[in-house]
Specification:
The chain is of the alpha/beta class and 250 residues long. The protein is 41% helix and 16% strand. The chain has a domain at 124-241: Aldolase class I (TIM Barrel). Helix 6 crosses helix 8 and helix 8 (141-152) runs parallel beside helix 9 (180-198). The structure holds 2-phosphoglycolic acid.
Length: 250
């Protein structure tokens, strides 16, 4: 099996209804050449999931949530379940983004429970991992990520249902990026870890790179043996930049 690249946008807490015009432009720009090479996914804020799903009907662009609760329903004011995202038209959900780990104190165990919810609801679940700057400087980046993988990925994960996103925390929204060699080393380590635990499913699981991906650096960062796409924050808000990154695959 060859791994089909996934070009994924995470809009974070950005986007009002007017911003859906960028999503429409992404749908319009998802050419036959791009479709032949990669999947497209946009994860808008939860308020826009249903409208976004409508806006890309027939375009082949997937819509996803940025987080979900572990439970399907219940007394959890302000939370959104994986089933609700699915019902609104999402096909994917991101869990364990470093901003949620930091802002909401989400542990690996919490992330794993959310990932299990994503699988239960039939959403492809993107599990995010990544080291902080001081952990990299201490030479612990790979060990930290291995531990996050062990703690955050459900045992039931398969290549079709789980995607891993490696996002070094210090590279998110900063304009800083790891070297090509550092990305290669980390993705190789992630691949080995997944292979040891999940066998062929691990070999076939997509591993995205995220953190300051832009059209100018996309080729260097994502055209590498164990890099199967990108998770893009800031640059996914503009169709031109998102399409510019995706064009690295054609
Ligand atoms: P960035 O964000 O592309 O703005 O660095 C990436 C992410 O957090 O997913």
């Amino acid at each position: 099996m060859t791994r089909r690249p996934l070009v994924a946008g995470n809009w974070k807490m950005n986007g009002l209804k007017a911003g859906l015009s960028e999503l429409e432009a992404i749908g319009a720009g998802y050419s036959a050449a791009l479709k032949a090479k990669s999947d497209f996914l946009i994860c808008p804020p939860v308020t826009l999931v249903a409208e976004a799903a409508k806006a890309v009907t027939g375009k082949g662009v997937f819509i996803g949530g940025q987080d979900c609760h572990a439970k399907a329903s219940g007394p959890h004011t302000g939370d959104v379940s994986a089933e609700m995202l699915k019902d609104a038209g999402a096909a994917y959900v991101i869990v364990g983004h470093s901003e949620r780990r930091a802002d909401h104190g989400e542990s690996d165990a919490v992330v794993r429970a959310k990932a299990e919810a994503g699988l239960r609801a039939g959403l492809v679940t993107i599990v995010c991992v990544g080291e902080r700057r001081e952990q990299r400087e201490a030479g612990k980046a790979i060990a930290v990520v291995r531990e996050q993988l062990a703690g955050s990925i459900p045992d039931a994960a398969t290549a079709a249902t789980v995607v891993v996103a490696y996002e070094p925390v210090w590279a998110i929204g900063t304009g800083l990026t790891p070297t090509k060699a550092d990305v290669a080393d980390m993705h190789k380590a992630i691949r080995e870890t997944l292979g040891q635990r999940f066998g062929a499913e691990g070999q076939n699981t997509r591993i995205l790179y995220g953190g300051s991906v832009k059209p100018e650096n996309a080729r260097d960062l994502i055209i590498q043996p164990d890099v199967d796409g990108a998770l893009i924050g800031g640059a996914s808000l503009k169709a031109k930049d998102f399409l510019g990154i995706a064009s690295a695959y054609i």
